[in-house]
Amino acid sequence: MANSKYEYVKSFEVEDEIMFPNLIVVRVGGRHFQRFSEVHEFEKPNDEKALKLMSLCATSVLQEYPDIVFSFGFSDEYSFVFKQTTKFYQRRASKVVSIMVSFFTSVYVTKWKEFFPDKKLKYPPSFHARPIVCASLEVLQEYLAWRQQHCHITNQHNTCLWELVKSGKTEKEALDILKGTHKQERNELLFQQFGINYRTLPQMFRQGSCVLKTEVEGIVKYSENGTPIKRMRKDPTTVHSKNIAGRSFWNEHQSLLKE
Ligand code: ATP
Ligand code: ATP
Ligand code: MG
Ligand code: MG
Ligand code: MG
């Protein structure tokens, strides 16, 4: 209703455009997933199916929104990076964040039974999300380094925790043992008590997962005489990389942000 006497109320909407040339990142994370993972009996410390469901949700986000070019995630979270020139919803933070978190959540719920055919979803899960404004590629790299470090530290901690629990300790006792330990001490605990070399655990657990768009040649259709007609298209692929924030990784993938 344009020009009605109520029109002025529109000016009360929060203005939250994220200005170019800042890079827009949105982090989506499971809300109360500690409880959700217990109620749904996730394998501890890493339920592979749950991680793959998260990764599928991230891939669906990249397929649905072409302006999102890169994603990194682990556990119950994924961060999404937009290309620098995006004009998605006039770069309005609340619009962008709400669209992504609701899409992510509905894919999670819709695809649940494909990953857990024998587990009923006992209640509707929810996710929270927030925008992160990165003023430069360097800031983006630091942000990603921070998330990947978090992935590493929590995974190493949880691996120790659940090995101790499996060996007969209560969760409280295990937590007390781990309190104040350093990275190196935890590696030694795993090796000496359980014969586990941390570095040989799956990359997906230790380093998280990246979803990014890479060019692949795909068949778009067949001509009348049956010859396949091919074209380059960008498809999201999942990779695990030791150092997603490292220069070499971004030298290889920097063009992503520049489209
Ligand atoms: P918040 O609502 O603040 O995000 P939270 O309960 O979700 O709180 P987080 O710090 O986000 O807590 O941690 C996620 C929790 O979900 C951890 O306890 C983690 O063990 C569990 N979790 C998530 N994914 C998996 C998985 N694939 N396998 C096992 N546990 C998982
Ligand atoms: P935006 O993405 O900005 O929200 P929109 O396309 O969703 O745009 P709205 O102004 O939110 O547009 O209007 C909602 C649209 O959905 C209208 O076109 C309306 O006709 C349709 N719609 C919503 N609920 C119903 C309903 N119960 N029955 C029929 N149509 C509906
Ligand atoms: Mg969470
Ligand atoms: Mg989390
Ligand atoms: Mg609408």
What does this structure look like?
The chain is an alpha+beta fold and 259 residues long. It contains eight helices and six strands, in the order E-H-H-E-E-H-E-H-H-H-H-E-E-H. It has helices at residues 33-39, 48-64, 93-115, 137-166, 171-178, 183-194, 203-207, 247-253, and strands at residues 23-30, 68-74, 77-82, 127-134, 209-222, 228-239. Helix 2 (48-64) crosses helix 3 (93-115), helix 4 crosses helix 5 and helix 4 runs parallel beside helix 6 (183-194). The longest helix is centred in the middle third of the chain and has 30 residues, at 137-166. 25% of the residues are buried. The protein binds adenosine-5'-triphosphate (ATP) (2 copies) and magnesium ion (3 copies). One magnesium ion is lined by residues 29, 75-77.
Q: What is the average per-residue confidence, as pLDDT, rounded to a whole number?
A: 94
Structural class category: alpha+beta
The Rg value, from CA coordinates, equals 22 Å
- Tell me the strand order in the biggest sheet: 4-1-3-2-5-6
- CATH topological fold name: Alpha-Beta Plaits
- Give the second-level CATH assignment, the architecture: 2-Layer Sandwich
Low-confidence stretches: none
Order of helices and strands: EHHEEHEHHHHEEH
In DSSP terms (H or I, runs of 4 or more residues), the helix count works out at 8
So what's the CATH class? Alpha Beta
Spell out the CATH superfamily.
Answer: tRNA(His) guanylyltransferase (Thg1)
